[in-house]
Amino acid sequence: MAMGTVSYMVPLQAACPSCWRLLILAFFVATMLWKASQAQLNENPVVLSEASGFHRAISDEEMAKIYKQNQNADWLPWSNRKYGIRKLYQLLDTLIKGRPQKYLSLVVIKKNRIVFLPLAARPMGLTISRMRAIVQGLRNSTRRGLVFPDTVYLMNVWDEGRCYRDDDDPRPVKGPPCTVPVFSLIKSWNYSTATSTETDVLLPFFNHVYENLVFYPWEKKINKALMRAAMQAQMRPNCTRLWIIELQKNDPDGRRLLDAGITNNLSKRKDVQLVDFVPIPDHARYRYLLSADGFTASCRLGKLLGTNSVVLKETTPWIEYYYRSLESNVHYVPFTKDNVLEVVKALEGDPQRCQRIAADAQQFAYTFLSQHAKAMYVRRALVYYNSLLPDMEAFVQHLVWPQSAGDSGDDEEGGGLTLIGVMETMKKFVGARR
Ligand SMILES: *[C@@H]1O[C@H](CO)[C@@H](O)[C@H](O)[C@H]1NC(C)=O
Ligand SMILES: *[C@@H]1O[C@H](CO)[C@@H](O)[C@H](O)[C@H]1NC(C)=O
Ligand SMILES: *[C@@H]1O[C@H](CO)[C@@H](O)[C@H](O)[C@H]1NC(C)=O
Ligand SMILES: *[C@@H]1O[C@H](CO)[C@@H](O)[C@H](O)[C@H]1NC(C)=O
């Protein structure tokens, strides 16, 4: 028998051990190519958590502009004075003995261990979910090397500020005044005077994540302005969200240019027609995205900035921590309920401007609004806060905090600390220093 025929007789696997692997690989490649061509047919928006040509801020130097434009402005009413554990203790004591503080928690940080203690015996579900995300977001960043100062601070997670300037504020008093800095998520801001009637120091939401980018080809985008929003309980009948829906029904330009709707109804009074929810990636299928405030600032804004569609933001006084770094006509296009259709029509005639603004917004969101960048923003605020309460670190050293039983490093709420326990330690600490 000739050598050639021998190899012909042996099974393929023996003769060519890598042939099977090649075959499997070929099949795999063919499947991938088919999938890619299908994706091109359907053209789904592409969501990226890491994108080339973009950069994440990872140092205080890179965040300096954000700190300066936002945080420094919040600290202005507090600087040049000193506060201390005594003041914090007195405020806590007054708060706890007064009306239930449904949105306030005490956050305790010692050696990068972070927990929150709600002030109310029965806190709102919203308080728990927002606070859990904050604590989790900060803990995540400690795993990436971020070191927080040892501290204790008050955090308000309601949709408005908590601390009003005492002079002539017509609003009903919402409990004792803030005699030490209190941190919040949203407050109002007067852009022309660069001041606020609320002295809260703003910190980020962590339950809303702004770090993904969404891409969809501009030519394929629908030439309409999309708005999907909730009907908040506190929204007025003449609010901008409902006004936009009216325009879509009754104005010929509105019918042509708007795709607006309410996706969930949290209002007891208003009767609204509900429409389907649109996931954030699918927002990128529309050229223009409307961000209109609800009760106060709309947290969706950060997510919209990450799409390669142009964001139209309603001009209102409500801000989250980073809004003062957003530049009008650079990162977004401003509108009011009176000019919304004119603004969309002007954009329709200038696609290059739209794409430039969309691209700048994506750069902004990717660089500055990641979960880690938010945690750096919090760390910087807490370092400054501690400088205003000179006995803070000495106090935290006094705080006895047993190691958690599990070795996961993630304490359950409280992690063995209680509000009453921390208050007792504070009381003793203050008494000893009398
Ligand atoms: C913390 O990290 C985990 C794991 O990566 C992630 O699932 C979670 O969403 C992060 N939490 C926050 C608030 O960013
Ligand atoms: C901002 O402050 C100025 C000066 O006090 C005032 O005239 C203006 O109405 C304020 N703007 C807003 C939006 O409150
Ligand atoms: C809605 O009406 C109230 C009073 O009726 C007014 O103060 C407010 O400015 C109006 N809001 C808008 C968005 O037009
Ligand atoms: C919104 O909720 C209110 C109160 O529950 C109700 O009267 C109204 O019909 C609801 N609207 C819709 C569209 O569900």
Automatic annotation (TrEMBL):
SMART domains recorded: CAP10
GO molecular function, one term: transferase activity
Keywords: Signal, Transferase
Ranges of residues in domain Glycosyl transferase CAP10: 147-379
Annotated Pfam families: Glyco_transf_90
Stretches of the chain forming a coiled coil according to its record: none
Signal sequence coordinates: 1-39
Family note: Belongs to the glycosyltransferase 90 family.
PANTHER family assigned to the protein according to its UniProt record, in alphabetical order: KDEL LYS-ASP-GLU-LEU CONTAINING - RELATED, PROTEIN O-GLUCOSYLTRANSFERASE 1
Protein name: Glycosyl transferase CAP10 domain-containing protein
